[in-house]
Amino acid sequence: MKLCLATNNAHKVEELQALLGDKFQLQTLNEIGCFDDIPETADTFDGNSLQKAMYVWERFQIDCIADDSGLEVDALNGEPGVFSARYAGEHGNHAKNIDKLLETLKGVENRAAQFRSVITLLIDGKPNFFEGIIRGKITHEKHGEKGFGYDPIFMPEGYDRTFAEMTMEEKNPISHRGLAVAKMIEFLKKA
């Protein structure tokens, strides 16, 4: 089954394809001919995820997976949240986002946080939502070279390594996106 993944983020495509296996073939926005910068103007992960999926469906009539995810830090009342990718002002500048977060948390003892992902699976224009949450903490400095985003400073509960220190095979089953995708796969098996 072919599904468009509403992104051109190669890391997301690789991560999600590994989770989905060979039963599904993911296509990027570029591969379906969508070169637009899809708006993300909602104030929730659900809203942004649905907005991206509907954008693809309305223009291309292609079944679609869209996700919105981010980091929610307890001591910051859930920030950066839906603004995770542009926390430091420039969309997708992971280094600046991490630096800003570490600076903001200087001297803060409560480092508890969670990654949250909401996936919208849009088939024949009908949305289904799947959420994944992984609890953990923010480290005081970067560790590891793998992954992307806030992975170098997020250590999941029960582990002594950050996501950026884990292989994809270690990270995927426990990550927020992995947990949401597992729910989506179960849904697809039953459908």
TrEMBL record:
Primary enzyme class: hydrolase
CDD domains per UniProt: HAM1
Active site: 68
Residues involved in Mg(2+) binding: 68
EC annotation from Swiss-Prot or TrEMBL: 3.6.1.66
GO cellular component: cytosol
Cofactor binding description: Binds 1 Mg(2+) ion per subunit.
Reaction(s) the record says it catalyses: dITP + H2O = dIMP + diphosphate + H(+); ITP + H2O = IMP + diphosphate + H(+); XTP + H2O = XMP + diphosphate + H(+)
SUPFAM superfamilies named among the record's database cross-references: ITPase-like
Subunit structure, interactors included: Homodimer.
Family membership: Belongs to the HAM1 NTPase family.
PANTHER family per the UniProt record, alphabetical: INOSINE TRIPHOSPHATE PYROPHOSPHATASE (PTHR11067:SF9), INOSINE TRIPHOSPHATE PYROPHOSPHATASE/HAM1 PROTEIN (PTHR11067)
Name by which UniProt lists this protein: dITP/XTP pyrophosphatase
